[in-house]
């Protein structure tokens, strides 16, 4: 038989009465901020970083409801499409480049310019990146992190084996180094067999030959520039790359070559800054490899930029609106961006973050410095293969041409250039 | 053609139905109409839903293929623009050439392997059940698994080529998967590995169903095993060949996952197939209208393949009815 005391009954009734009251009073004052988010980041350092971001959100009193869709970005987009069709998009979702403009046309977004101004973010973000976040003139998305695409990784054991002392600074030097490595019985270039990898090799070549030609041909799809000598030279360089790749790689990721790269059987990797994460994850020590800007034929290195952003979708519920406000404030804080980049190996989207602190590596510092210099010198470019320069349809049509060229030595550079122009016109 | 046949079958089944309610009628007269209605519901609701789904979405996809839809379905009419655009892309042209190579190669190789296995198993070997299970096993794994396993086996750096090279035959080359003009044949190899057991099961069932009197008669006439198969058994089961070919061919036309897992459409875009192109346009490029146009073209291809089979079945039924 349970023991019911009078005091207990009174206390219980008081609590019952108070509960709805306090709840209503709380709702009137402020709702608990809640954020629904979708992204493709579910595992590895990406998963760890977004989980850490969620924890920061929770520490600020919010409810974090992240829904990762693993796989390619397009799979995440299919989920977003379904939610938009159902009239119920998440509060924020991962999106980047021209896709921000394209998707903002099919469902209302919110104007977050006042928050951006209050945080003083705009002067610290590369103009090209800011432009992609405010397609209609006002901010609707916020940048989270930045990667340099034109990054060259050199295997230190590989350099020793081929007798290479300094990393190449121009494509001519790069070609000499690669020939030396090939002569030493190595595979000079550790590549993957996936289409965006092939597309990326081309964009790194063209950006290194002429950032100006890249801007006109790839970012503005200027036909004259696409037919120009720089694009032809980039195809010739891409043909050289293809002769230095591992011929056995089929539809595998470049990362299967990491052990050979660490041993020095493969010499170089042309890959975005995230490759640092892959190398360290595979057990490489920072002394086992050098990372620097990819070769640049004239002038200081350009910065071929890839960035991840979050777009803010219009919401009706008060708690989701409050969640968006809180999330934007957290995302724009330098401390949040530092924390995020330390985990993923990227660099913060805010250029005023100091990377001379423990937790960042030399490669990231080099990359951040490169970005600041490139902003000053107007040499910031947007990545083609990573869907920053063009909408998905155009990008895919162009990469078809590039990947076919890499794998079919019978196609000559002038012919490939004609096909690229045709792909742009047909897209 | 198959639709009218299906309707005919339903009609034929019609008169038999009232028998059931009538049987119930005698015991519980009051409930009879309810049960009759329920019976009708049980048949027509799922049938209607299936028809709505198949026919409805076919019509919807066809409609989308004539609209300017990109990220989301949009209304508006652009005529044949999507069709013209997709037909001009090298992807679709390559995909259709590949479909012919893959379709013919896959059907021939799979049937040949299946028939060989069936004939060998038909020799009343010991442990037939175990062997049959083993040969059927590849069918139990999905094309994604098949593709992934074969992508490693066919990779020259780690797979079969490497194995043979390590055995001492260093000049051996088997690197089709990285050669743009050969990679399509690797799809045939992997596909045939998976489908051969299925073809074997059909052929074996056919061989076993042949009238034993026929076999004995042939034996008395002094036919050896080779002649027995060539002149008696295989000609008797020839309808099975057509069934196997038709089933395998429609597998070939809708092949998607094998390509995704084995080659990702590469090297370059050399192993594209129409289903991969549909996915590519709809979901990678966000061009719903163009993707739908390719899907409609695929449907037309299927009709071209399936219609002769349907006509054949009808002709055969008519001939049997006459006989």
Account of the protein in words:
The complex is a heterodimer of chains A (427) and B (323). Chain A is α/β, with parallel strands linked by helices. Chain A is built from 19 helices and 11 strands. Chain A has helices at 6-29, 44-59, 73-85, 98-104, 113-119, 127-133, 156-162, 171-183, 195-209, 211-219, 223-226, 229-244, 258-263, 275-281, 318-332, 334-344, 362-376, 392-407, 413-426, and strands spanning 34-39, 63-68, 92-95, 141-148, 151-155, 187-189, 266-270, 289-293, 303-312, 347-348, 380-382. Residues 8-29 of chain A have low confidence and may be disordered. Chain B is an all-alpha fold. Chain B has helices at residues 2-13, 19-27, 32-64, 81-88, 90-121, 128-140, 143-154, 160-166, 183-208, 212-220, 225-236, 238-253, 257-262, 274-284, 288-322. In chain B, helix 5 (90-121) packs antiparallel against helix 12 (238-253), helix 6 (128-140) packs across helix 9 and helix 9 packs antiparallel against helix 12 (238-253). Chain B is globular. The two termini of chain B are 22 Å apart. Mean pLDDT of chain B is 86; it is low at 1-25. Chains A and B meet through helix 3 and helix 18 of A and helix 14 of B.
Main traits of this protein?
heterodimer; A: 427 residues; alpha/beta; seven-stranded mixed β-sheet; 52% helix; 13% strand; globular; B: 323 residues; mainly alpha; 75% helix; disordered N terminus
Which value, in Å, is the CA radius of gyration of chain A?
Answer: 25 Å
Helix fraction of chain B?
A: over 70%
Shape of chain A: globular
Kindly state the percentage of residues in helix of chain A: 40-55%
Tell me about the biggest sheet of chain A? Answer: 7 strands, mixed
Number of helices of chain B: 15
Q: What's the pLDDT, averaged over the residues of chain A?
A: 90
Secondary-structure element pattern of chain A, one letter each: HEHEHEHHHEEHHEHHHHHEHEEHHEHEHH
Strand content of chain A: 5-15%
Oligomer: heterodimer
């Amino acid at each position: 038989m349970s023991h019911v005391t009078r005091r207990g009954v009174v206390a219980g009734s008081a609590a019952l009465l108070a509960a709805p009251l306090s709840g209503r009073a709380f709702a009137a004052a402020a709702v608990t901020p809640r954020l629904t988010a979708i992204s493709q980041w579910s595992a590895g350092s990406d998963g760890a970083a977004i989980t850490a971001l969620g924890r920061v959100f929770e520490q600020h009193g919010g409810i974090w409801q992240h829904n990762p869709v693993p796989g390619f970005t397009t799979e995440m987009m299919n989920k977003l499409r379904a939610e938009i069709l159902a009239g119920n998009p998440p509060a924020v979702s991962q999106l980047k480049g021209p896709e921000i403009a394209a998707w903002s046309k099919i469902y209302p977004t919110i104007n977050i310019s006042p928050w951006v101004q209050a945080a003083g973010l705009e002067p610290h973000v590369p103009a090209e990146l800011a432009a992609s976040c405010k397609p209609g003139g006002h901010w609707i998305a916020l940048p989270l992190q930045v990667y340099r695409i034109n990054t060259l990784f050199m295997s230190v054991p590989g350099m020793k084996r081929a007798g290479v002392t300094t990393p190449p600074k121009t494509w001519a030097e790069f070609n000499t180094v690669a020939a030396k490595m090939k002569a030493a019985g190595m595979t000079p270039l550790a590549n993957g067999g996936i289409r965006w990898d092939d597309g990326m090799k081309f964009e790194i070549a063209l950006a290194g030959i002429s950032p100006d030609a890249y801007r006109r041909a790839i970012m503005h799809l200027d036909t004259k520039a696409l037919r120009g000598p720089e694009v032809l030279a980039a195809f010739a360089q891409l043909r050289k790359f293809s002769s230095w790749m591992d011929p056995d790689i089929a539809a595998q990721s470049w990362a299967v070559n990491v052990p050979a790269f660490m041993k020095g059987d493969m010499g170089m990797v042309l890959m975005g800054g995230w490759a640092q994460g892959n190398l360290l994850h595979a057990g490489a020590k920072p002394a086992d490899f050098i990372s620097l800007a990819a070769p640049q034929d004239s002038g200081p290195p350009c910065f071929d930029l890839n960035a991840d952003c979050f777009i803010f979708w219009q919401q009706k519920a008060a708690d989701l609106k409050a969640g968006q406000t809180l999330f934007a404030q957290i995302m724009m804080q330098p401390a949040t961006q530092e924390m995020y980049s330390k985990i993923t190996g990227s660099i913060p989207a805010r250029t005023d973050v100091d990377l001379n602190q423990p937790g960042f590596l030399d490669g990231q510092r080099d990359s951040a410095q490169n970005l600041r210099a490139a902003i000053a010198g107007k040499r910031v470019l947007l990545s083609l293969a990573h869907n920053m320069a063009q909408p998905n349809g155009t990008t895919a049509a162009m990469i078809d041409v590039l990947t076919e060229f890499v794998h079919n030595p019978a196609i000559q550079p002038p012919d490939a250039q004609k096909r690229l122009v045709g792909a742009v016109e047909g897209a | 053609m198959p639709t009218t046949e299906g309707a005919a079958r339903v009609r034929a089944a019609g008169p038999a139905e009232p028998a059931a309610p009538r049987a119930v009628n005698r015991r519980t007269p009051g409930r009879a109409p309810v049960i009759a209605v329920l019976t009708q519901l049980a048949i027509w609701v799922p049938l209607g839903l299936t028809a709505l789904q198949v026919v409805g979405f076919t019509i919807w996809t066809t409609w989308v293929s004539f609209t300017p839809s990109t990220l989301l379905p949009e209304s508006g009419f652009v005529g044949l623009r999507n069709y013209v655009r997709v037909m001009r892309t090298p992807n679709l042209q390559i995909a259709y050439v590949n479909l012919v190579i893959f379709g013919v190669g896959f059907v021939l190789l799979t049937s040949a392997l299946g028939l060989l296995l069936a004939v060998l198993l038909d020799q009343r070997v010991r442990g037939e059940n175990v062997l049959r299970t083993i040969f059927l096993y590849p069918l139990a794994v999905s094309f994604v698994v098949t593709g992934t396993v074969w992508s490693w086996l066919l990779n020259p750096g780690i797979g079969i080529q490497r194995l043979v090279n390590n055995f001492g035959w260093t000049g051996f080359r088997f690197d089709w998967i990285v050669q743009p003009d050969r990679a399509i044949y690797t799809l045939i190899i992997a596909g045939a590995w998976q489908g051969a057991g299925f073809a074997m099961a059909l052929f074996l069932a056919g061989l076993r169903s042949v009238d034993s009197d026929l076999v004995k008669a042939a034996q008395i006439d002094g036919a050896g095993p080779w002649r027995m198969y060539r002149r008696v058994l295989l000609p008797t089961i020839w309808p099975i060949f057509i069934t196997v070919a038709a089933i395998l061919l429609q597998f070939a036309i809708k092949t998607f996952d094998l390509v995704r897992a084995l080659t990702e459409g590469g090297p370059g875009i050399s192993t594209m197939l129409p289903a991969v192109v549909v996915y590519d346009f709809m979901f990678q490029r966000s061009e719903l209208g163009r993707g739908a146009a390719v899907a409609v073209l695929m449907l037309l291809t299927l009709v071209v393949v399936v219609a002769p089979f349907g006509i054949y079945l009808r002709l055969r039924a008519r001939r049997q009815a006459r006989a």
